[in-house]
Amino acid sequence: MLIYGHSFDLQYSNILIKRQDLSLSQVILLDRxxxxxxxxxxxxNNLKREGLIEGRKPNYFVGKKVSQITEQKAAYTxxxxxxxxxxxxxxxxxxxxxxxxKRKEIDELLWKKLPEWMSSQQRKTKIGHLLTELRxxxxxxxxxxxxxxxxxxxxxxx
Length: 158
Fold this sequence. Notes:
Blueprint: H1 10-17, H2 24-34, H3 41-49, E1 53-54, E2 61-62, H4 64-69, H5 73-79, H6 84-98, E3 100-102, H7 103-110, H8 120-136, E4 140-142, E5 150-153
Antiparallel strand pairs: 1-2, 3-5, 4-5
Helix pairs in contact: 1-2
């Protein structure tokens, strides 16, 4: 398939084109999403409505249905975030097991579990928000300095 001004992943496009329920324009847009190329907001909304893509602008990724068709299930799972409670439970469990954890250790624990599309700054921010949520719920406290945070479980009053 050749459309002037566009290069396609032929193997990927051929798999999608064989599907009777996808239009040529959808296949072209999905090829762009897979290559991490920008698409218009209108196109993104249409693909999202059909369940063909997920994520937030500009970090769209192919949806579950497309990943199953194209045998990219592992890539889909890497892009799909776990529920927030999973991350919170993981932090609490690790602090419980070890008594305390430094921020660097918590970063190391969660870094590769966060969605692949997140930048380093987004990952740091996400982990910071998780720690703040646990602190505000009075489940953990920082017993170190701000720069050298050392998180531990908050002792319950008896």
